Q: What sequence folds into this?
């Protein structure tokens, strides 16, 4: 592996939903061109953490936070940071595939059109096709680009959502349990895809599958009850965890 | 003893049947544990149904038969009368006879013997009916009670009953609709016997009033319905152009931008608008909006602004239908899965981009539905238009003119003393029929739009 480049650094992040604190003093570094996986029992705050990175938590009225999240040395929560342009730099893939009720083409072209990224119809066509290719979906759907995206299978829909996120050429891709609604074959395809994508993007993936975390990620962070217990190279975490809770979780004793 | 009393008895017996059957089933299940096929409640309900239904069916059949037989019998008393309609008149007189009221039917010699006969027969009939019905119910009760056993499938049978009842209800609804349409159709056809269809549909002059005075010149009246329908459409369009934007924007605001706190009091307030009786809107139109528009008309020097105008009626009608659009559109927008909204925002779209590009297209069929519903409300509305737009059937597209609408004309044609076979009265049915046809087409169009969108997006 080449020299590690720090992409996102989270320092002392506390998040509250109303009175209830969901995250407690999180410190985590995420490195460029790596896959970082977040694991931990349900309700421990994994989704909350990744939603802080692209400020999707702003949508929740009762959500408050303090602490610092730096992307390339720029504070995400700084008043001068516009959440809308921040989100164009960060793609997000959700637990349940959520293609828009539009054609496949329009789904992928959604971001580029929104941000005026292409100048001509030809450019847009090309961008749509390369995005679909990157998401490994193009060959399966090339003759039905103008049919509704909702007509695809679950795994195809999820790859469509990945293509949609790739089309705006983000720097970071956040994935919140992208495979939890998929069968093993579709899951394997997405994992393969993640492997390829990390060449160009920084990926954060939340997963409930230890094997998945072990297979795809370079680094792993284990969370428990809103606290980050341990983070480090996946190899180390899985073979030689420092913390007893981590060990219990990955060997299946809690969670 | 009266028929109400018998009915109460039967219902009481059925309730009793429910109670004892449930108890028996509960007792069985207490012994057999989980072995019993259906829960005691189902046994009770099915038994209650078995108890009550034979009596109800018999009651209906009996009432039909008793009517036929008694009229036949009474006919014998008036056998000297050959004309059936006159004989029927006497028979009606006997059936509806009340002691202290004078009736023309009393002129007939047999009238009082017939009433005596009628009274005693009906008395006997009631007695017989009571006994038979109650006996039947008791037998049914005993039978249904005996049926109960551990493997009696009361739950499945009761399910069947429920399904059949729902079937019957929907068939009933369908027949009522067909009945209304047919009666409308027949009256309309009668109207077209005296007035040619093309004169009605394409004529541009509407003045049905003249046809009353038959002795006068030009007594035939004039039944060109075009001005009436253009009036309806003009007013509905004005109403929609008031209610459409206001309703749509408030729905978007409520569902996408408003905080929960604002939403929780703003939505009920908008919905209150829907509960205001239309007469009150009529007052509002006449007393507040009318004078205001007239002042504006004078201020801006608009020629020929009448005190009753399409604009006034249309805008108040528009206010009336705002809550339909706002509330239904809000429901449609809120029904769009949150994941789509999040997906779009995560792509770096602003809230308004998300609304126009994702949320509105995803709920388009719901929005169209709410607009069409509001439109057909506007077309069918009477009161506001009666009060604010007038009766004058002008063929005009000028919103400052007085116009009339289909519903208003129907009211005008059918209120007061009317002969029910004059062309004037019958024209109301023709208007109603065409109105019905228009709204039907509207509904078909809206359904097909909805369906197309469903196919495309779901
Ligand atoms: N919108 C919200 N309002 C209030 N509380 C919330 C909200 N979202 C999350 N929480 C709370 O914050 C805590 C962390 O939730 P989060 O969704 O981040 O968990 P998670 O680790 O992603 O769980 P899972 O693995 O089940 O997805 C939970 O206790 C949850 O109840
Ligand atoms: Mg989660």
A:
């Amino acid at each position: 592996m080449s020299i590690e480049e720090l992409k996102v650094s989270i320092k002392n992040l506390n998040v509250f939903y109303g009175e209830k604190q969901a995250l407690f003093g999180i410190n985590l570094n995420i490195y460029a061109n790596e896959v970082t996986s977040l694991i931990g029992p349900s309700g421990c705050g994994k989704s909350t953490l990744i939603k802080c990175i692209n400020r999707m938590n702003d949508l929740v009225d009762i959500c408050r936070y303090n602490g610092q999240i730096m992307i390339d040395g720029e504070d995400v929560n700084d008043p001068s940071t516009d959440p809308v342009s921040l989100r164009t730099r960060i793609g997000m893939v959700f637990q349940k595939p959520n293609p828009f009720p539009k054609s496949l083409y329009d789904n992928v072209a959604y971001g580029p059109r929104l941000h005026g990224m292409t100048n001509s119809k030809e450019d847009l066509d090309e961008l749509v096709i390369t995005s679909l290719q990157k998401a490994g979906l193009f060959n399966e759907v090339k003759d039905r680009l103008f049919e509704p995206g909702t007509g695809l299978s679950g795994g195809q829909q999820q790859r469509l959502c990945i293509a949609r996120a790739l089309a705006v050429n983000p720097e970071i891709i956040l994935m919140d349990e992208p495979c939890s609604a998929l069968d093993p074959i579709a899951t394997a395809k997405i994992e393969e895809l993640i492997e390829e994508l990390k060449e160009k993007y920084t990926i954060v993936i939340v997963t409930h599958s230890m094997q998945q975390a072990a297979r795809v990620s370079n680094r792993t962070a284990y969370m428990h009850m809103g606290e980050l217990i341990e983070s480090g190279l996946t190899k180390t975490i899985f073979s030689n965890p420092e913390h007893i809770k981590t060990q219990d979780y990955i060997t299946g004793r809690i969670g | 003893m009266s028929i109400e009393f018998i009915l109460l008895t039967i219902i009481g017996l059925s309730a009793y049947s429910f109670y004892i059957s449930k108890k028996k089933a509960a007792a069985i299940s207490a012994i057999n544990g989980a072995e019993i096929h259906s829960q005691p409640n189902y046994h009770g309900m099915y038994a209650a149904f078995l108890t009550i239904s034979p009596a109800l069916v018999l009651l209906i059949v009996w009432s039909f038969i008793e009517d036929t037989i008694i009229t036949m019998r009474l006919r014998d008393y008036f056998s000297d009368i050959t004309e059936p309609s006159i004989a029927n008149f006497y028979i009606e007189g006997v059936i509806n006879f009340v002691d202290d009221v004078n009736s023309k039917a009393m002129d007939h010699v047999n009238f009082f013997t017939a009433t005596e006969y009628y009274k005693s027969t009906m008395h006997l009939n009631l007695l017989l009916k009571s006994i038979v019905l109650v006996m039947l119910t008791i037998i049914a009760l005993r039978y249904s009670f005996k049926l109960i056993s551990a493997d009696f499938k009361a739950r499945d049978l009761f399910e069947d009953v429920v399904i059949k009842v729902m079937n019957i209800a929907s068939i009933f609804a369908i027949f009522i609709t067909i009945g209304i349409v047919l009666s409308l159709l027949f009256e309309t056809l009668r109207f077209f016997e005296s007035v040619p269809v093309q004169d009605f549909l394409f004529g541009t002059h509407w003045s049905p009033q003249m046809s009353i005075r038959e002795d006068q010149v030009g007594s035939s009246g004039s039944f060109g319905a075009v001005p009436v329908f253009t009036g309806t459409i003009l007013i509905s369009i004005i109403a929609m152009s008031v209610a459409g934007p206001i309703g749509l924007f408030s729905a978007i605001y409520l569902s996408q931008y408003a905080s929960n706190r604002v939403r929780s009091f703003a939505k009920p307030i908008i919905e209150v608008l829907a509960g205001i009786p239309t007469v009150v809107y009529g007052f509002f139109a006449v007393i507040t909006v009318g004078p205001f528009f007239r002042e504006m008309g004078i201020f801006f020097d608009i020629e020929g602004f009448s005190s009753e105008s399409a604009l006034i009626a249309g805008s108040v009608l528009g206010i009336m239908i705002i809550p339909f659009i706002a509330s239904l559109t809000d429901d449609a927008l809120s029904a769009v899965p949150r994941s789509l909204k999040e997906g779009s925002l995560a792509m770096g779209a602003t809230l308004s981009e998300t609304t126009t590009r994702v949320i509105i297209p995803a709920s388009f069929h719901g929005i169209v539905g709410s607009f069409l519903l509001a439109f057909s409300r506007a077309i069918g509305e009477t009161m506001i238009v009666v009060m604010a737009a007038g009766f004058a059937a002008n063929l005009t597209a000028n919103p400052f003119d007085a116009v009339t609408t289909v519903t208003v004309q129907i009211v005008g044609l059918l209120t007061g003393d009317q002969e029910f076979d004059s062309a004037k009265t019958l024209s109301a049915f023709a208007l109603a029929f065409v109105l019905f046809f228009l709204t039907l087409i509207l509904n078909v169009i809206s359904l097909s739009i909805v369906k197309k969108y469903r196919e495309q997006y779901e």
